[in-house]
Amino acid sequence: MATTSPAHAIGVDIGGTGIKGAPVDLGAGAFTAERIRIPTPQPATPDAVAAVVKEIVAKLDAPGTIGLTLPSVVLDGVVKTAANIDQEWIGTDAKALFEEATGRPVGVVNDADAAGIAEVRFGAGKDRHGVVLLVTLGTGIGSALFVDGTLVPNTELGHLPLHHGDAEDWAAESVREDDDLSWKEWGHRLSDYMELVEKLLWPNLIIIGGGVSRKSEKFLPHVRARTEVVPAQLLNDAGIVGAALFAPTA
């Protein structure tokens, strides 16, 4: 294994279908080796996920501390919500769990916040001022809110009420697939969500993240919004890069 460098860390992005990890150059916001992906265990209990994270870190064989994402509100390393993961996570000290599993210092952060900080540091939100909102579209809807570059953590705006339910139940990318919506139909649903967050936040910029962002030309033309809406530049790698940025420095 190479000598540890403070300019590098490992990022691990824990999602509903896959757990992905890679070593990251923190100065460039880029992977220093190929990422490794392992399907998320089902049920995705804390112990089962920790075992997969341990396996990924071992396979990466890279130096550095570790930053991990969870699709949850995370306060001081403790998981507070579990909308799209096993309910057993609620109350789990994720920081302690992953440190025991990997034997390394660990930082844990909300998944959308990680993607957002990567986009603001290296991608579509770089050098943008005012209110910037990253929206991740996947199994659910995640959000990361920035005011003049400063993160407002754990916003979880996918759970705003929309059409008598959570917004993500109306407009998540998984809903497009499950309901067999055309890109145009889904774009109109996203428009409803954009209108909702615009009324609340009056953002200067909305960045669309998640894996579907690489297909933005299919649906963004159908999205109505008064705000500038752009696709993420780091695409689905933003979560890994952002996670690494939250890794402990020592």
Overall form: globular
Main sheet properties: 6 strands, mixed
Strand content: 25-35%
Mean pLDDT: 94
Provide the CATH superfamily of the largest domain.
ATPase, nucleotide binding domain
- Helix count from the secondary structure assignment: 8
The residue ranges in which pLDDT falls below 50 over 5 or more consecutive positions are 1-5
State the separation between the terminal residues, measured CA to CA. Answer: 18 Å
Number of domains: 2
User: What would you say the CATH architecture of the largest domain is?
Assistant: 2-Layer Sandwich
The CATH class label of the largest domain is: Alpha Beta
Number of strands: 15
Helix proportion range: 25-40%
Broad structural category = alpha/beta
Radius of gyration: 17 Å
Order of helix and strand elements from N to C terminus: EEEEHEEEHEHEEEEEHHHEHEH
* CATH fold node name of the largest domain: Nucleotidyltransferase, domain 5
